[in-house]
Sequence to fold (673 residues):
Amino acid sequence: MRHLHTRTTRRRVVGALTAGLLCAAGLAAPALAAPAGEPTAPTLADGVALTPPMGFNNWNSTHCRPEFNESMVKGTADLFVEKGLKDAGYQYVNLDDCWALPNRDADGRLVPDPVRFPNGIKAVADYVHSKGLKLGIYTSAGTKTCDSAGFPGALGHEYSDARQFADWGVDYLKYDNCNNQGVDAKLRYTTMRDALKATGRPIVYSICEWGQNKPWEWAAEVGHSWRTTGDISDSWGSMLSILKQNLPLAPYAGPGHWNDPDMLEVGNGGMTDTEYRSHFSMWSVMAAPLLIGSDLRKASRSTFDILDNKEVVAVDQDPLGKQGTVVSSEGGRWVVAKEMKDGSRAVALFNESGTAQHIATNTGAVGLPHAAAYTLRDLWQHKSYNTAGTISATVPAHGTVLVRVFADHRWAQQPPAVELGLDGSPLIEAGRPATLTSVVTDLGRTPALRVGAELTGPGGWTVRAASRTTSAVVPTGHALRTTWSLTPPAGTPTGSYDLTLRASYRSPAGDRVESTVPLTASVVVPPPSGTSGLGDLPWLSATNGYGPVERNTSNGESAAGDGHPLTVGGVVYGKGLGVHAESAVEYYAGTACETVTADVGVDDEKGAKGTVAFEIWADGTKVASTGVLTNAQPAQPLTADVTGAQVVRLVVTDGGDGIDSDHADWANARLTC
Fold:
């Protein structure tokens, strides 16, 4: 549950645990927790959620606005059927907060809002069931839910509320954590488990306590899934932060007990389609619940194409139930591998960085047995190839290549896999030629024949090949390398421009194959000589957890310009950058600069909240960092030697605890060239 302007509302914990409150709430004593750090085996054994739940939840797209109503819920169920989402595996149509009136009736029962749901919840459940789907509902393990209107929570009403849900035909319960009165988390969530079980109805039980009490260590015997983090938002920084927190928890997931990194943001508009494909790919590799968070009545074709990718969904829904594990992650080049029931491996090559990256691994590293060759299936291209054992790709900025690889005696029926890449700096000055080299590498066990390469740029740019663009044969492990001269016209504005690298070749069987990789080049201007404020210089790229990066003000989390004066430890700074973790801001240094300096810290505007860490990178090398800082600390001086760097990158991470209230200031940030 998340709220537009009060993201931390749900983290309210009021009062202390008392015997009187326990008695009033009718709570039983909790079972002993599992030893810290040891995965627990599920004891529910109820046959529910043996694969990660798939469906829809309205909160990310509607929050508590009036359009959340019976018509929307029924319309979503209709679209599940019409658009093929039901056939892809999506089952649950879930209501989030604001479905009830603020007060219970005279008998203590929950009352559906008669404006939003004039026919009641049972009628909605009956409609959803008539489509062959299931209905979910929401409440909180507290006295009230998370919305500021104060809808009734289930603390002290667990058995009666569970009975109502079952009588209505509810199939799924999301149980939030707001207004919990300080009652022990395991106690609260175990009581609702028992209440749901007492109804006799199979109900998926989704624990939403935000990972505060390490539910992965105890919730396998309580619920079917548990949130591992705070709320997601529709931004690259938020998705990335949650991904990094959820990945290490792989040992705790399995059939009937899943790590839940929160709902999908695909289609809500805050990320690019490339980023949404990464979001969907990584949630699937992590065997996460896949709950659509966008309004399907307004969804684009590209949104449906992502959500309805059955080959990616199959990775998430694999009955073995293994969560993918990290093979490598150096420099933001992630390799995550997921063991599948048929012995294959799903492998995600995920590029965290803002520029295209070569990401590589091999079949041995991801756990496959030795074989003469393997079949490699690209799950977004829907094409199969053979590989001698290398799994690699040039992955676009913020992109993911997702493949499924297996030892297969029929591998020779597939054409060889090739990797397309571009060597040389993609940072180009207008009117001046730059030299780049395309590389087409055969990764297969068989040779690539009649290979050709082509590089194209924007209209008006001059792109000329300075060496051969074809080769009669490229054997296994070899490459066709072509040198290109690329010149943007004089006066081309600074910014990022699309390039396309294409290769065509034939397999030994004569099959023609075409491959394309989208790339970018950035038109840049040399940095000015002397010392300049980074808040006044153009950047190459900027990503942020909430809202945009702000020049010379703090980050206000929403629209550009909604920040305040940069203030750390009571000191106000006139210049700098205001960001929100996870954040990265890149500048072109052109090998002409020497130092970056700044006074860094958590902005005062969030009170005692916020934990961040600052890093300065010169090209691919971290050259300075602070460690974790809190609001209690004054600004810390940070200086980095960036001599010889083409690109300087300023990074703020979340301190390892999620991105809630992580307002970070690069005060007096300066670049000397």
Observations:
- Confidence is low (pLDDT under 50) at residues 1-38.
- The CA atoms of residues 349 and 401 lie 5 Å apart.
- The longest strand covers residues 512-524.
- The chain has eleven helices and 38 strands.
